[in-house]
Structures are given as C-alpha cells and as structure tokens.
Amino acid sequence: MRRLALIVVIVAVLAGGLFWVTRPKPLPVVVSEVGTGKVEATLANTRAGTVEACQRTKLSTIMGGRIEILAVKEGDKVKKGQLLLKLWNDDQQANAGLAQAQVVLAAKRSEEACIAAVNAENEARRQAELRAKGFVSSSREESARTDAEVRRAACNTARADIAQAEARLKATRSEQGRVSLYAPFDGTVAKIVGELGEYSTPSPPGVPTPPAIDLIDDSCLYVKAPMDEVDAPKIVPGQPVRITLDALPGKVLAGKVRRVAPYVSAVEKQARTVDIEVDFVTPTEADGLLVGYSADVEIIRDTREQVLRIPTAALQEGSKVLVYNPDSSKLEARVVKAGVANWEYTEILDGLKAGERIATSLERAGIKAGAKVTPEEKK
Question: Half-sphere exposure of residue 367, counting CA atoms within 13 Å on the CB side?
C-alpha cells in the first residue's frame, strides 16, 4: 500500500509539473484606458494633393519660327504686357512697310482725285450759268455736269482705296502678333523651352508639344486634392480644412474648401475620385511655398468636445471592443454604440465607462475574446 501510494504521489507530481510547464501563458496585450476628449469627424484625401497657382498659363506662339528675341530667363519676375519672346519676322515687317506706303500713296491719289472733282463741279456750275444766259449750248452744259459727276465718283473711289490700304496695314500688323508672346499677368517664368536662334513649333491640336514659356502667378496659391467618390457628397464649400505638407514637417496650415469638382475623375488603376480646391485661410502662411509641392488635406465635418472616446484601432467589426477584466485577466467582447469618428478616435455613446481598459493591439496573434492576457498600459 505504501508503495502504491508513493507511485500515485510521484505520478501526481509529474502530472502537475507537466501541466505547469505546458499551461497556456497569458498573452501580452496593449490596453488603453477609456477617457474623455475631443473627437472630430474628418475626411482625408485618397492620394497626395498638389499646391497649385491661382493663375498659370503655358504660352506658345500661334505660328512657328526661329527665336529672334528671348527677353526673359527662367525664374524672372515679369509684369503684365511685358515682351517674353519674339520670332524672326522680317518678312512681316517688310509687308507692313509696304502696306504703310500704300496707305500714303492712296491718300495722295485721293487728294488729287478730289481736287479734280471740286474743279469739275465748279466748271459745271459756270456752264450752267452761261447756258441760262444763252452763251453756251445745252450739250456743253451737260458734258460739264457729266465730267463733274465722273470726277466725284473717282474721288470717292480713291477714298475707298485709302480704307482698303489701312485695312491691309492693320492685317499685316496683326500678323506680327502671331510671332510674339507677352505676359498676360504679373508672374514668374517657370520654364522656357527653346534657346535663342532655335526653331519654336506651336502645339497642333492633339499633339502634346511642350509650350514655349510656362508662366505662373505664385502670389496666389491653393491646394488641389483628390477625394474618394464615396466622400464627395459630404463635402461642401466653406468647410474648414487642415493642410500638411511634406516640405514643412510638423506644421499644420488652416484652409477652407473653395470648390468641389462637379464630375468624377477615373484614373487608371486608381479609385474614382473627385477633386477639391482648398484656399489658405491666411494667405501669408503660403508665402515661400513652391508650386507643385505635395500636400495632404483633412476636412473637418463635425467636432465633439469632451466626449467619451476610444482609439479607433480598438473598434472591431460589428462595433465590438475587447474589454480587459482585471479579476479574471481575460478579454471580454462588448458591443458599443459609436458616434463621431476619425482615423484616430471614435466617440462612444453607449457600452463603455470612463476608466475601463480595452485592447488596442488587435493585430497580435491570439488576441480575442476569452484570451488570458497580461496588460501593457498605453496612454
């Protein structure tokens, strides 16, 4: 009996040791205490936005030709109406000179014809007076009157020739405008395609030829960003926006929605998006930004102050959270009622109390309802 009892004790000790070694160990889990604070309902862009200039134009001459005058360099500040580029146009200038000479010639001929018309009209009146006194025949009077009418018609034709010559001169001058580029507004020359003496080719329809001069007005900037088509109906002009830029890490600029595009853009291999335009609330904060900077926007739709909130990462499908029970050291599933939410925090309307702790490291293996865990506090 003693030997049997000893065997039983030994087996029990071995079984207990085996159980102790192989028992499931508590899983480490990050928990967060349910507290109060501010929660905002926000929308963020799906892809990086871009800093754009309020005015930007890519200029090309109407006709091609050799660059004769390149009056600016890249980076130059220019004023509205300033000459930027001009092509060789000696032939047009020669035609303009010829048209000017034709205007002068037509004016001289008109003067000559009209003087002759006045003299013929005076002669016709004298012949009419002499015919009334019986000194000349009626045929002589009629001949003088006819000559006066012919010369008056010649005078009118000569005046019409002046108008025609002036119109031709105007046409040649307008042709000269086809080879020159002038700044349509105050701005900065961003890029020039072509060098002095090179041939500049205008962009024909359907052919993406680079423009001769890219001119931007960097005194007025805004942000253009693509938003998911699902979020588009929730966006309206006037909503406040937070703007962040990779070029200014840690800095947040205040913005305001200016425009929501009235159509959806379909980009290959990308989700369908709707472009929005965001103005800077304080334009001076945008001073020094470069056109083309990448920017992210966060639209603030609603704000809740001092409400019960949890990290959004702790919320599972079906509005469930895993609550840590300190008595059993286990996680318990609980359904909650969520309110306003963003990527960081979610408002809790019902189901939790301040001070309770919930699991946030849901990506760890074995973290589920009923699991025995060891909490790691996270503020």
Answer: 20
- What is the CB-side half-sphere exposure of residue 68 using CA atoms within 13 A? 12
Dihedral sign from CA coordinates of 185, 188, 194, 197: positive
- Close Cβ partners of 275 (under 8 Å, ≥ 6 residues apart): 224, 225, 226, 227, 261, 265
> Which amino acid belongs to residue 269?
K
- The answer for 67, left when phi > 0, alpha when psi is -120 to 50, beta otherwise, is beta
Q: What is the pLDDT of residue 15?
A: 58
Residues in the chain: 379
Q: What is the DSSP letter of 327?
A: T
pLDDT at 376: 76
Q: What is the pLDDT of residues 72-97, one digit of tens each?
A: 998 899 999 999 998 887 777 777 78
State the pLDDT at residue 240.
Answer: 94
Within 10 A of 277 (CB to CB), how many other CB atoms are there?
A: 18
Q: Is the dihedral of CA 336, 340, 341, 347 positive or negative?
A: negative
CB 27 within 8 A of CB 375: no
pLDDT at residue 20, rounded to an integer = 44
CA–centroid distance for 87 within its chain: 31
The CB density around residue 72, as the number of other CB atoms within 10 Å, is 19
Nearby residues of 253 by Cβ (< 8 Å), 6 or more positions away: 242, 243, 244, 245, 280, 281, 282, 285, 286
Helices 90-133, 138-176: crossing angle, 10 deg rounding? 160
Maximum pairwise Cα distance, the chain: 183
Name residues of the chain where pLDDT drops below 70: 1-2, 4-6, 8-25, 203-208, 267-270, 377-379
